[in-house]
């Protein structure tokens, strides 16, 4: 495994432990959002971009938004109390770590269209999916046929989760606007 994979595993583990140990609800929400973002990066590293996008949208995006809206509706800290909660060295440390993580991620990613990508490293499997998926599904586009036939339940589940999260967010935001 690469240095990136180890760094990412440590980051995910650290944010998971921090989420469980922190007492301040706002801190927990922020660290949980970072955890979800780390998981999305891990899924991207493991060549599962559809799962990564779902994790980023739902875990890091919608869930964090809903939790922040919930805390905003239930507690109203004064500006002085809010400033006391912010730990500037911690914020700087996390920001620096994310910057380092991003600089490590970019060199690890394959160049688009490169013959070194895993897709081209095993041409027999690639050719099988290109030729056989149309025969089995009747769908001409190989990517669509793989998502529809081989990963149909997974794709359907992700679509349901994204749809439910979107509807839930709209309901909460509508209540927020009209409250």
TrEMBL record:
It is found in: Cell membrane. It is a multi-pass membrane protein. It comes from the Archaea. The chain crosses the membrane at residues 28-49, 56-74, 86-106. Keywords: Cell membrane, Membrane, Transmembrane, Transmembrane helix, Transport. Residues 10-75 form the MrpA C-terminal/MbhD domain. Gene3D superfamilies: NADH-ubiquinone/plastoquinone oxidoreductase chain 6, subunit NuoJ. One of its GO terms (cellular component) is plasma membrane. InterPro entries: CPA3_Na-H_Antiporter_A, MrpA_C/MbhD, MrpA_C/MbhE, Nuo/plastoQ_OxRdtase_6_NuoJ. Its main location: membrane. This is Monovalent cation/H+ antiporter subunit B. It comes from Haloterrigena salina JCM 13891.
């Amino acid at each position: 495994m690469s240095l990136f994979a180890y760094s990412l595993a440590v980051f995910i583990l650290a944010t998971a432990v921090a989420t469980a140990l922190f007492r301040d609800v706002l801190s927990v929400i922020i660290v949980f959002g970072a955890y979800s973002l780390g998981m999305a990066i891990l899924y991207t590293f493991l060549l599962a971009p559809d799962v990564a996008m779902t994790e980023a949208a739902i875990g890091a995006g919608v869930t964090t938004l809903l939790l922040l809206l919930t805390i905003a509706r239930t507690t109203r800290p004064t500006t002085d109390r809010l400033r006391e909660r912010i730990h500037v060295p911690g914020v700087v440390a996390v920001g620096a770590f994310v910057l380092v993580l991003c600089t490590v991620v970019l060199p690890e990613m394959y160049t688009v269209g490169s013959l070194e990508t895993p897709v081209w490293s095993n041409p027999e499997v690639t050719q099988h999916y290109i030729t056989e998926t149309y025969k089995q599904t009747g769908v001409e586009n190989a990517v669509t046929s793989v998502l529809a036939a081989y990963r149909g339940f997974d794709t359907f589940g992700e679509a349901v989760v994204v749809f439910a999260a979107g509807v839930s967010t709209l309901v909460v935001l509508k209540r927020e606007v009209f409250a």
